[in-house]
Amino acid sequence: MPALQTPAPPTASGRVAALNAAACALVLAVVVLAAQIHGLDLTVYREGALALLGRAGDKELYDDVLVRTDTRGLPFTYPPFAALLLIPVALVPEACALALVTGLSCICLVGVSVVVVRYLRSAGVSWSRPPLALPAVVLLIGISGPWREGLGFGQVNALLMVLVLADLLRSTRLPPGVLIGIAAGIKLTPLAFGLVFLARRDWRSLAWLTASFGSTVAVAWLVAPRDSAIFWLGALFDASRVGDTADLYNVSLNSIVMQSGLPDGLQRPLWLLASLAVIVAGYRAIRRADDDGDLLRAITANAVVMLAISPISWFHHWVWIALLFPVGLVFARSRAGVTRVVTWILLAVLLPVMMFSSITVTLTLTGTVSGQGPLPLAIFSGLGVVVPVALLAVWSLHPVRTTPEQPVRA
Question: Which Gene Ontology molecular-function terms are recorded (predicted)?
Fold first, then answer.
């Protein structure tokens, strides 16, 4: 009879992995509790999918109001392809759908945190090496304002971010641009990541992005031709359907211009000029980042362009701050003099701005949610786009490095 073998004791790496997994589970529980999940946006997604199926009573997909709150009516604002993909979460009980979306967002949070930790380690940041670095990063990102509120609303921005990262970090065997095109089919703003391919003169990837996005439009048009026609020929061009562009919760250049008090005839041209300047700065920043071998900085620069120039970028759309801070940290460490000081100051200013949205502030101070507020609150909220754009400008200047030139891999 063969002797029974005693199981080998767990290795040090196995114990560290188990400890990280347990710590991440605990941290995710804290993050979910901090988010105070209510799923308002998920409710709109579900109603949109049901309307597409003809199971929402007399409601249609692009009606002005699908879900009514105490203060306003909420429409479905995404392309028809998004409604198609959301059908599974519309056909299960609401609690199950909310649990599914929350779980998926938590997986995305861990995935983004892994990217950040690997990036910091590659750049030689010492505190990113301890065994519990990953749970610490998960916590820091998860309790930040955009991630916390995005979880609360049941938003899809974290998933879109992961699709874009998987594409640009070459985490799949799909041709570059395909996943970005799919993300843009769900929500149009990821189309802005074509700027990365444009800056690199990567016409093949740009073609794949275009073909992938066009495929999402074609599929949705075949399945839902009437809703597709309504969206692409009408609803798409009505920014007021998304919300009040002058709302303080809208952290974009457009919001700042709308709040400026300038004559209506000057507002749109000024926004377009400011957006063009940001695109140029983003183009230069991407080229400079590629010269430094810093892929994640190039991606982050493009994300800032996307969010800054979009007519509406709600506070919870800024999930990309998960990369903005570590990229800014690595950049500051590699520079000297004024550039280093300015970068640190900008990051220090951005930290509290990205912890507390206008909704959080007005709800805390007045007990009600308001899109308007006094001048100090307007300035505080506006810094959420002004500071990232200022960082973008600094990155585009390409100051001389003070450390040896080394590629920084994500």
Answer: hexosyltransferase activity
> One-letter amino acid identity for 24?
C
Query: What proportion of the chain, given as a percentage, has pLDDT over 70?
Result: 93
The band of 2, judged by pLDDT with boundaries at 50, 70 and 90, is low
- CB 388, CB 300: distance < 8 Å: no
Nearest to 144 by CA among 335, 350, 330, 366: 350
Mean pLDDT of 83-92: 95
Residue 252 lies in a domain: yes
- Distance separating alpha carbons of residues 198 and 208, to the nearest angstrom: 13
**Whether 103 contacts 32, CB under 8 Å:** no
Q: Is the pLDDT of residue 222 over 70?
A: yes
CA pair distance 118, 389, nearest whole angstrom: 25
| C-alpha–C-alpha distance, residues 325 and 192, integer Å | 21
Q: Given a cut of 70, is residue 260 above it in pLDDT? A: yes
Answer whether residue 2 is part of any domain.
no
Report how far apart the first and last C-alpha atoms of the chain are (Å, whole number): 52
> How far is 210 from 69, CA to CA, in rounded Å?
37
Q: What is the pLDDT of residues 62-78, one digit of tens each?
A: 988 888 776 678 899 99
Residues 176 and 170: beta-carbon distance below 8 Å: yes
Tokens of 238: 């009505």
In sequence order, which residues have a C-beta less than 8 Å from that of residue 246 and are 6 or more positions away?
255, 258, 259, 371
Overall domain count for the chain: 1
The DSSP code for 249 is T
Instruction: Report which DSSP code applies to 155.
Output: -
Query: Given a cut of 50, is residue 405 above it in pLDDT?
Result: no
Helix, strand, coil percentages for the chain (3-state, nearest 5) = 70, 0, 30
Domain-embedded: residue 175: no
The verdict on residue 390 lying in a domain is yes
Q: Which domain holds residue 394?
A: 243-410
Instruction: With cut-offs at 50, 70 and 90, classify the pLDDT of residue 3.
Output: low
CA 390 – CA 382 distance, rounded (Å): 12
